[in-house]
């Protein structure tokens, strides 16, 4: 399921020597369609990787046969102590020139000094990667004469021998590189067909790629693997070689997940809105309150099985560590797939997605505007469950919509999307909980209904660069700016020294809002717990205001505080009502339990990496890479804080690279 199938002549069992050093091995699928076997193989591309030297040689030999030239191994490099080949150059058979012969009748010169070649290199001691490619020849090439090259003749002989025992399919599978942790993670080939109540996967459902889209995906992934070794991707193919699903995450997304994996939104708005590209995005919130991409993919079909594959690919990429909270649309496949892959996570439906569908679902009803107003009131203004139940019931009865199927389904699912039922969940600003709040998708403004696969991939790097620039500017502003204080409240001073600029600005509005609250009154005492009621004047429509009452619980021994509005869980910082009660009780600083480290301006620098990586397999290069990458991020964060830090980091890195060179020299 993670392979790209390319047509070629058959490749066969090891036995004979290469033409100038090699032969071929078979790697095929006898169920692939006739149409698949008629496609031309993709050309060699820098970054393409193979499981062995033989597989790399076979690939280039097959490509050469289709184009009409032969190949040979023109150079090999070996480690002297272990006699292990670690680099090789595969050239066109017309490369170079033969040595002059002193014979009376020397053979005519057939070589032309052709530059066409590929250079392959052993990486991580187990895979061979193409690191250089030259496709142009300085002589004519023709598929009509391809059988006359030695490297091809051995393939024909091997084919004849193989056909005596079993039929050979003309197919060659090139395995695109994927990070090794997938083998230790979920089984992406899990047999969901055998589960009770499931229908078999419809293999006719696949990504509808247009001309140029396949090559765009292929070349993008190869380029990214070459330039970013921690780039991760998986491709899901059906038995006919058709591409069903694709998932990928770049190095920054994988690193960001280590910091911001607590609350995640799975954005499927492109699917819901029937965009040309079936884009699915995994999005978190960074310490500036900005959306951060944690991986994305293309989904071939909106079904449970396809979503399960995508989610397992994502959590495998993130080394099997699931998020705590997952927010999605209410689609039926998602309702099944999310709890199946993430049984320990809290699965909630995005309120904004649901309310955006109100005009579509209810717009044709009599009294639509009145229904909409009462629905908004029930959803956004209810502070207690009883208030919601009463308001919802009044809406249903007054407007006679008890038979509306959509409203019935919403009510049945109310505990997964209505804010009053979600107060014990830490969303950290991932969902809008007020009527005037909105939810912006990560690729908002860059993807429209008719954006093609190729166009999206062309834009992807630009989007990521701009998002990373925004984050870098946020880091710079938070470190170098002096925050403007608008009150004399100690709470404001305290947070100004800790949080990033944007999160401080949001908290500052709550400090200012303390002055719209009045008449903080104690209403009951139960042991160490005191219940207060805080009144606040709030705007309801235009300039109209009304007074609302907010209950706040205060535990005196531990200075714990909780407001009925639950802003701390929804947004990640205390509300004005809770601040009023703390101030009322003479508390001058916000207790540490209500100061979240994830909002700190130096959060990524101070992040405890050891809490994330529990076990490191020293024999597994991917695990080593991931662990080193996380630690190096801390060095980068610290090095970017000043010119002195920057110079010191560069100096130490230079010295470290020199030491690596000395170690490598001792191994040769």
TrEMBL record:
InterPro entries: FAR1_DNA_bnd_dom, FHY3/FAR1, MULE_transposase_dom, Znf_PMZ, Znf_SWIM. One of its GO terms (cellular component) is nucleus. Residues 11-33 have a biased composition (Acidic residues). The keyword Transmembrane does not apply. Residues 550-586 form the SWIM-type domain. The keyword Zinc-finger applies. GO terms for biological process: regulation of DNA-templated transcription. GO terms for molecular function: zinc ion binding. Pfam families: FAR1, MULE. Residues 1-45 are annotated as: Disordered. It is found in: Nucleus. Keywords: Metal-binding, Nucleus, Zinc, Zinc-finger. Putative transcription activator involved in regulating light control of development. Belongs to the FHY3/FAR1 family. This is Protein FAR1-RELATED SEQUENCE.
């Amino acid at each position: 399921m993670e392979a790209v199938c390319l047509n070629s002549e058959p490749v066969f069992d090891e036995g004979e020597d290469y033409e100038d050093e090699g032969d071929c091995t078979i790697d095929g699928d006898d169920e692939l369609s006739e149409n698949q076997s008629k496609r031309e193989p993709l050309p060699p591309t820098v970054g393409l990787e193979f499981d062995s030297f033989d597989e790399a040689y076979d690939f280039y030999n097959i490509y050469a046969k289709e184009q009409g030239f032969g190949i040979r191994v023109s150079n090999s490099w070996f480690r002297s102590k272990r006699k292990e080949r670690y680099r090789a150059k595969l050239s066109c058979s017309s490369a170079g020139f033969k040595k002059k012969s002193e014979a009376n009748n020397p053979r005519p010169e057939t070589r032309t000094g052709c530059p066409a070649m590929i250079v392959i290199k052993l990486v991580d001691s187990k895979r061979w990667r193409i690191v250089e490619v030259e496709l142009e020849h300085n002589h004519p090439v023709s598929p009509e004469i391809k059988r006359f090259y030695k490297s091809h003749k051995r393939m024909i002989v091997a084919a004849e021998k193989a056909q005596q025992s079993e039929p050979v399919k003309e197919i060659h599978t090139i395995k695109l590189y994927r990070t090794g942790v997938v083998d230790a993670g979920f089984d992406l080939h899990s047999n969901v067909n055998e589960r009770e109540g499931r229908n078999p996967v419809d293999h006719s459902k696949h990504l509808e790629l247009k001309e140029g889209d396949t090559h765009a995906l292929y070349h993008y992934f190869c380029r990214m693997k070459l330039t970013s070794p921690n780039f991760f991707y998986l491709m899901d193919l059906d038995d006919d070689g058709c591409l069903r699903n694709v998932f990928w995450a770049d190095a920054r997304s994988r690193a960001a997940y280590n910091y911001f994996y607590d609350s995640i939104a799975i954005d499927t708005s492109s699917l819901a809105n029937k965009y040309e590209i079936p884009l699915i995005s995994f999005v978190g919130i960074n310490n500036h309150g900005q959306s951060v991409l944690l991986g994305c993919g293309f989904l071939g079909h909106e079904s449970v099985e396809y979503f399960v594959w995508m989610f397992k690919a994502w959590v495998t990429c993130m080394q099997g560590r699931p998020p705590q909270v997952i927010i999605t649309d209410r689609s039926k496949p998602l309702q099944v797939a999310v709890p199946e892959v993430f049984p320990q996570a809290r699965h909630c439906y995005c309120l904004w997605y649901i309310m955006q569908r109100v005009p579509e679902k209810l717009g044709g009803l009599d009294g639509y505007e009145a229904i909409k107003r009462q629905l908004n009131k029930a959803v956004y203004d209810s502070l207690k469950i009883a208030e919601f139940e009463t308001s919802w019931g009044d809406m249903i009865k007054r407007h006679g919509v008890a038979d509306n199927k959509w409203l019935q389904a919403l009510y049945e699912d109310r505990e997964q999307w209505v804010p009053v039922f979600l107060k014990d969940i830490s969303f950290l600003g991932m969902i809008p909980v007020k009527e005037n709040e909105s939810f912006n998708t990560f690729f908002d403004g860059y993807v429209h209904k008719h954006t093609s696969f190729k166009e999206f991939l062309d834009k992807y790097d630009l989007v990521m660069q701009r998002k990373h620039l925004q984050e870098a500017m946020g880091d710079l502003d938070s470190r170098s700016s002096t925050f403007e204080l608008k009150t004399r409240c100690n709470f404001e001073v305290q947070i100004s020294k800790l949080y990033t600029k944007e999160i401080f600005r949001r908290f500052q509005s709550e400090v200012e809002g303390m002055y719209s609250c009045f008449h903080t009154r104690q209403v009951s005492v139960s042991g160490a717990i005191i219940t207060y009621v805080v009144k606040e004047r709030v705007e309801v429509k235009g300039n109209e205001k009304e007074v609302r009452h907010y209950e706040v619980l205060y535990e005196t021994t531990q200075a714990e505080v909780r407001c009925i509005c639950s802003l701390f869980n929804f947004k990640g910082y205390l509300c004005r009502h809770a601040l009023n009660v703390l101030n009322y009780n003479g508390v001058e600083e916000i207790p540490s339990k209500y100061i979240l480290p994830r909002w700190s301006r130096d959060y990524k620098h101070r992040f405890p990496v050891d809490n994330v990586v529990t076990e490191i397999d020293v024999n597994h290069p991917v695990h080593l890479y991931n662990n080193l990458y996380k630690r190096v991020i801390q060095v980068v964060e610290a090095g970017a804080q000043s010119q002195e830090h920057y110079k010191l980091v560069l100096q130490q890195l230079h010295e470290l690279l020199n030491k690596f060179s000395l170690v490598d020299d001792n191994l040769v």
